[in-house]
Amino acid sequence: QVYRVSVEGGRPTMISSMPMECISINKEGAMLYQDKKGYEDYWRKHHVSPIARDIWMYTPGKEPQYRQLTTFGGEDREPVWAPDGKTFYYLSEENGSFNIYRRTPGDAKAVQLTHYTKNPVRYLSAATDGRLCYGFDGEIYTLLPGGEAQKVNISIVSDRNDKDIIRQIKSSGATEMAVSPDGKEVAFVLRGDVYVTSVEYKTTKQITNTPCQERTVDFAPDGRTLVYASERGGLWQLYTSTIVRKDEKLFTYATELKEERLTNSDAASFQPQYSPDGKEIAFLEKRSTIRVINLKTKDVRTVMDGKYQYSYSDGDQWFQWSPDSKWILSDYIGVGGWNNKDVVLLNADGKGEMVNLTESGYNDGNAKWVLGGKAMIWTSDRAGYRSHGSWGAEDDTYIMFFDAEAYDRFLMNKEETALLEEAEKAEKEKAGKKDEKDAKKKKGDADKDKEKKVEPLKFDLANRFDRIVRLTVNSSHMADAMLSAKGDKLYYLSVFEDGYDLWEHNLKENVTKVLLKKVGAGALQPDKEGKNIFLCARDGMKKIEIEGSKISPIEFEAFFDYRPYGEREYIFDHIWQQVNDKFYVADLQGTDWNGYKETYKRFLPYINNNYDFAEMLSEMLGELNGSHTGARYYASGAALPTAALGVFYDEAYAGDGLKIKEIIAQSPLTKKKTDVKPGCIIEKVDGVAIKAGADYFPLLEGKAGRKVILSVYDPVTGKRFEETLKPISYGAQNELLYKRWVENCRKKVDEYSGGRIAYIHIKGMDSPSFRKIYSDLLSESSRKKEAVVVDTRHNGGGWLHEQVATLLSGKEYERFVPRGQYIGSDPFDRWLKPSCMLVCEDNYSNAHGTPFVYKTLGIGKLIGAPVAGTMTAVWWESQIDPSIVFGIPQVGCMDMQGNYLENRTLQPDILVYNEPEAVLKGEDAQLKAAVDHLLKRLPQKK
């Protein structure tokens, strides 16, 4: 919406409820503006698509007129009137990069004034003498029509008032954790640096101190070395830090550490994991290839090729060494199994066949060795509620035995287990009675005996599917699970109500109980004896004593050197490299990515805040001409956000107070019996009078959810009265406006079709939206209809194309008719009647993919405006500065002809645009066209 406000301040008054950006007004009041049809990152460049902006002119009056001035399929932006009020200038990518063009509203062609070929012109403005001013390549230029552009020489003399290094002490913010073998200390990562702290005390040792990022830390079995990944020089590699002095046992109190680089390759290498014997380290190379490095020879071998796995986001891969250091369990998708993950057994020497242990059409993963390697536990969604709209599947923990004897023992009840253990104990005691001479050993031999020999594992895999046991009683949304050393108790993190609880299931007694409430989600890490569980959750690191169900925070005081300039440089390099490694096509659509790195990196020394930093990152990312990218800076919001009353005001009313034009359904004034109705005037808010022309918004600052007293006057009755209510946030009011719009559309369809056609709107491509349309579409009121209009307009995406297509593609093949009474049809969970789908320029991501699938499968016709090609899966990655997030469009979707959907416009079968004048009158030509189309398919009523 566009508002007018006096330069002296006062109440804003609405000019138009059409979206307008970059407004320029001439002396006659005519407004030039760039339209905003929907969402796309503001800094995206080079795209020719329906969402690209055009220049329009708005002429106010009794019958306001909206006129489109530019028709180029790419970006036309930032119009400004020339001093004569008849000519205007604007920016366009019509010939490549953003340049300045001149035209008049009646011209069919424009005159190009600048001819830059690489970087964009930005921030165009015009002076009253005709001089133009703009930004280009980090500089400011002026241009007189007919002349040459002149760079403005700017010299800023200023003392620098910020620092390169700011020493801080942090006591929170750990993002991952590893427990030492003796359970006395934990290593953790805090804003990209590695630390070690005592479990019992706050004393903390800093291991790394770089502006770069370290992560995925692990202890060596002897507890004297740490291994971790670090992205120094733009490349993830493995490093170790070792305690140098032999008399020092703990990192927390070590005085001398030695860091060494472990890998030396040109491929990203991270997520290291020590083998139990400490001789080797397994790690990920290029995010999905499992490799092993021998610490003595430094030889590296491949255990599983990356083609058998896909990493969507860093940290999403799982593997684990076997107790005998000879095998590895890993997640595995094979060929084409992205949505049907399995667990694979790998020989750590890199030889032999991989064995798919689970061979399931469900999702299986997170496998862990248990019972000394005689079995594994893993999670699977095969038994719980299935995804109903791409999300929502519940997990269970299962155990698979590789040893028949261990399986038989596991199945014993409590009594049988007790008898067996008693017999084993007696046998041990008998075998332990030896000659006293043999019992005496030298100290060295005694120390050797303390080391328990690990027997090589043997696998009986032929009957493994017959030795699977479900361990959890109830399916749920699980974060992690672990089995006790004896195999008699399962501990797991699950959410049933509010937050993740720690549960214990006694497998012998078949008793399940909550050990601790709301402990948070994270990986469960037991100590060697299995007496304690360590957890790194969002609210901090914790030690959980199983016996007694006691939880204690692991506190720390960590020195952190905040390097704002160094950190921003690292984030820049990291983002550049992430795109280089993960963008959905390897050639980055022909983008000169190396060249743009040089172009934009040179601005880093002059950026001292994250607003500018995010904009610069977005400019660079915008060169890719890809959807789902750009950088975001999430600063803290307003301290006192303005509340809303849930009403429309009469913009024509000029007197004191606020005249109510409409009360929005389900808003605060509809939730109780009240005399307030349209036409009433709100004279005061909490006793403060609202004068004519005065700004009333400050009276509602910070009052969402708080009681407010409105003083109201009813001109019809002449009555003045007070009304107490709780205002809502603008976010809540927007939700009510969405419901109002959907209800209006439903009523129009009912009116246009004479009650014959149903209407549903898909708000987002997510589970709640799918459950809503499933409920509405298959309800009795919709079943009585003869067809349905499926509206996907203004949908921001998600992942729902398969479910929507399946729901709408039902073909009736049988009916249920007991004694002549029709009671239902099959399929009962699909729509069996005609449909059509509404689309517009504001469909994004999966809201492009869903109509594409609908059209490709021939389910029905698409009606409305063209949709930009944005059906690409994205990973929005948070940076070590968590206020910075950026997107990588990384999983491209292809049609069956081998064409990526990205940047391929989806054309509707019936093209209809909603014109501004009609929209402002409440008309919807697209909706009307959809109803007309369906009515033609229905039998004519007599």
Distance between the termini: 46 Å
The name CATH uses for the topology of the domain at 2-151 is: Neuraminidase
The dominant shape is: globular
Give me the number of helical elements: 14
Instruction: Tell me the number of strands.
Output: 62
Oligomer: single chain
Which regions contain 5 or more consecutive residues with pLDDT less than 50? none
- Main beta-sheet annotation: 6 strands, antiparallel
Secondary structure category = alpha+beta
Question: How would you describe this structure to a colleague?
Answer:
The chain has 942 residues and is α+β, with helices and mostly antiparallel strands. Among the domains are: 2-151, Tricorn protease N-terminal domain (Neuraminidase, 6 Propeller); 643-730, PDZ domain (Pdz3 Domain, Roll), CATH 2.30.42; 754-869 and 905-937, 2-enoyl-CoA Hydratase, Chain A, domain 1, CATH 3.90.226.10. The strands form 17 sheets. Strands 47, 48, 49, 50, 51 and 52 form a 6-stranded antiparallel β-sheet that branches. A hairpin with a 4-residue loop joins strand 51 (708-714) and strand 52 (719-725). The two termini are 46 Å apart. The mean pLDDT is 95.
What's the arrangement of secondary structure elements?
Elements (H helix, E strand, L loop, with lengths): L1 E3 L8 E4 L3 E6 L5 E5 L19 E5 L5 E4 L7 E6 L6 E5 L6 E5 L7 E2 L8 E6 L5 E5 L2 E5 L6 E2 L14 E5 L3 E6 L5 E6 L2 E6 L5 E3 L7 E6 L5 E8 L2 E9 L13 E5 L7 E6 L5 E6 L3 E6 L5 E5 L14 E3 L5 E6 L9 E6 L7 E2 L7 E7 L4 E6 L15 E6 L2 H7 L3 H19 L3 H4 L3 H8 L17 E3 L6 E7 L5 E7 L4 E7 L4 E6 L8 E2 L5 E6 L2 E6 L4 E4 L4 E5 L1 H19 L10 H9 L8 H13 L7 E4 L9 E2 L2 E3 L8 E6 L17 E5 L2 E2 L18 E7 L4 E7 L2 E2 H24 L3 E5 L5 H11 L2 H4 L3 E5 L9 H8 L5 E3 L7 E3 L8 E5 L6 H11 L4 E4 L7 E7 L5 E9 L17 E2 L4 H5 L4 H13 L5
Parallel strand pairs: 54-55, 55-58, 58-59, 59-62
Antiparallel strand pairs: 1-2, 3-4, 4-5, 5-6, 7-8, 8-9, 9-10, 11-12, 12-13, 13-14, 15-44, 16-17, 17-18, 18-19, 20-21, 21-22, 22-23, 24-25, 25-26, 26-27, 28-29, 29-30, 30-31, 32-33, 33-34, 34-35, 36-37, 37-38, 38-39, 40-41, 41-42, 42-43, 45-61, 46-53, 47-48, 48-49, 49-50, 49-51, 51-52, 56-57, ...
Helix pairs in contact: 8-14, 11-12
